[in-house]
Design brief:
By secondary structure, the protein is α/β, with parallel strands linked by helices. It has two domains: about 150 residues, no CATH class; about 160 residues, Dihydrodipicolinate Reductase, domain 2 (2-Layer Sandwich). Helices cover about 30% and strands about 25% of the residues. It has an eight-stranded mixed sheet with strand order 1-4-5-3-2-6-7-8, with helices on both faces. A six-stranded mixed sheet has the order 10-9-11-12-13-14, with helices on one face. Strand 13 and strand 14 form a beta hairpin.
Length: about 350
């Protein structure tokens, strides 16, 4: 069921939600959180679809905030709120409210969203793209217990990592980190099966992929060993090699779907390691609403090394384009490559 409201208010939107629930015969609210999506018209459809799919695991009230800022001086003065209310089959397992804020109202989105939040339920804010530099200090981000960004959507993904580290607040996370959860789990399990001291690591993947950099930072942080970052044509992460005193552990994924795990003294094993879609990533992030201390430690590790004069090894199989930022992993630079600082 869909209800369109033009030149409306938050109070009328709440009334429309109640009326819609009664009309479809579900007056009770069975949602566990409020998910606020801050996006634009171009990306709204994909973001809402991903959020709707994720709501099958986490029934939510989804509020999409679309700011319609006009270049016309008169239009900027004319504040107006248009809304679309969706319930039932049109909104997954929860409710969806699409807000279009016109004129000066676009600068005060939090005043519109606040009355629409579910009472006594956690709030999560997600920026599919164009996230603010400091998510916690953003007016909408300040309403949330959890703030989700996506460094991969930034124009300069590697610079975005430095921004996320510099402005990190408890509750921040990034989908670039979520994308490497299966890799982290598989590598940890491999070390459990073959316990041996790791003496060096190589992470291979696309040159501008923040997930590759985060995995390199995490390994350098947790293992306290040199991490070499090499480049490939992708897709995404393609391989991790861990040198141990008992041999080399290799997790290789060349096609973005099926990986091969190789360890000394054991037969090679095929491992399902497919690239997940946004709905799966979002559903994973909504499973926990407490601060992710491991992400905090990893994202700050590489940036802190850069800012304190640490050197980064970037021995590239395929040299990145001129002017491209080198990968921030903790490693002394070899003589043939200049250190990235």
């Amino acid at each position: 069921m869909k209800i369109d409201l033009t030149e409306t208010t938050s109070s009328k939107i709440n009334q429309a939600l109640v009326s819609a629930r009664r009309a479809i015969g579900t007056p009770a609210i069975g949602m566990v959180l409020t998910l606020v999506i801050v996006t634009d018209e171009e990306n709204a459809y994909d973001a809402l679809k991903s959020a709707g799919d994720a709501s099958r695991e986490h029934p939510s009230r989804i509020i999409a905030v679309i700011k319609r800022v006009s270049r016309s001086p008169r239009a900027r003065r004319d504040a107006r709120l248009d809304a679309e209310v969706r319930v039932g089959s049109d909104a997954g397992t929860g409710e969806t409210v699409v807000l279009r804020l016109h004129g000066e109202l676009a600068n005060h989105a939090q005043s519109v969203v606040l009355p629409l939040l579910l009472p006594d339920a956690p709030v999560v804010v997600w920026w599919p793209e164009d996230a603010p530099a400091d998510a916690a200090k953003d007016p909408l981000g300040a309403l949330a217990q959890r703030r989700i960004t996506d460094g991969y959507s930034a124009e300069r993904p590697l610079d975005e990592l430095a921004v996320r580290a510099a402005t990190y607040s408890p509750g921040d996370t990034d989908l670039s980190w979520t994308r490497i959860t299966p890799w982290r789990s598989m590598l940890a399990a491999a070390l459990d099966q073959q316990p041996a001291q790791v003496i060096g690591v190589t992470v291979e993947g696309e040159s501008d992929n923040p997930s590759c950099e985060l995995l390199a930072m995490w390994l350098a942080d947790r293992l306290a060993v040199p991490v070499e970052r090499t480049y490939s044509g992708g897709p995404g992460l393609t391989a991790v090699r861990m040198e141990t005193k008992n041999g080399v552990i290799v997790l290789d994924r060349a096609d973005g779907s099926l990986a091969t795990l190789s360890m000394q003294g054991q037969p090679d094993r095929a491992v399902a390691l497919k690239r997940r879609d946004t709905a799966e990533l979002l559903a994973e992030e909504l499973r926990r609403l407490d601060p992710d201390n491991t992400y905090e430690s990893a994202v700050k590790f590489g940036v802190e090394k850069l800012h304190t004069g640490g050197e980064v090894k970037a021995a590239a199989a395929e040299k990145p384009a001129e002017g491209e930022q080198k990968a921030p992993a903790a490693k002394k630079a070899p003589a043939k490559k200049a250190a990235a600082k």
